[in-house]
Please model this.
Amino acid sequence: MTGIILGSIAAFCLALAYVFSSLAVRRHRNIGPVGLLCRAHLIMGALSLIGLCFTWSPLVFSHFATIAWPLIGGVLFYLWGQTCLFMAQRKVDSSRVVPLLGLKLIVLAAINLLILKNATYGFWQWLGIFLTLASTALLNNAGRRIGIDSLTWVILTCIGYASSDTCITELVHRLQNIGVTGLAASSLLGAFLSYTLCGALSLAILPWMPRQSKQVWRSVTPFAFFWLLAMLFLFACFSSIGTVNGNIIQSTRGLFAILIGALLAKAGFTELEEKVSRAIFFRRLLAAFLMIAAIVSFNFKLNS
Model:
């Protein structure tokens, strides 16, 4: 039960993070995704440095060559994914973008089958892929049609996220192999290392970008806070119930995003979420449930 609660909090925080990232992107279109991400990750990097004080292991320095490529690869692919997400959020509401991120399942399947060649899939996995495609088609018809350019950005986001997940999984395994004991310790250390590196890269890039007002920093701070908070709860969830079950719980972020979007639209924040009919709202809910079912199906007996 503890793991389910932790995972649900992580999913809710992720949904909030996506809402605040959409707000920042739409209010500061002139800055662009890179400028917003630099500022957000400077905040995350500073907070992660504090986290490193509690999770640091000298094994990181002595075995840095062992963990370097999954660490750097995970960060670069993650930043690629976030940049593409911000591009998608310029035109598409979060209540539709977030459930679509379940397309990452198909990307992961392709990576495992075609590149890593370390998996074989049966009926349940192919059913999960089919349900993912069905959910995507349903979401595309739940309101204004998602343009091909926005859908392309979402797919590129999923490629970045899936590639980053693959690198992070390898990073955690390597941290455990060099002597960092426990899934929780290695996961948190890996997360804080990753976001500290994101902050360092942002610090290097920021001087080359135009100066911005304090309002920009205030706009990206909620996204940075809720994103990092979500990661901490997610890794705590992983250590409690495992990564497979944790990712299933995490997929409820789509439901939270749809519910938050409906509340925002009803409250008059049409800048963030369009008002839709009850039929469209329930169609979006059905699509989100289909995506959750897809992830459950994909992971069913996968590790047995």
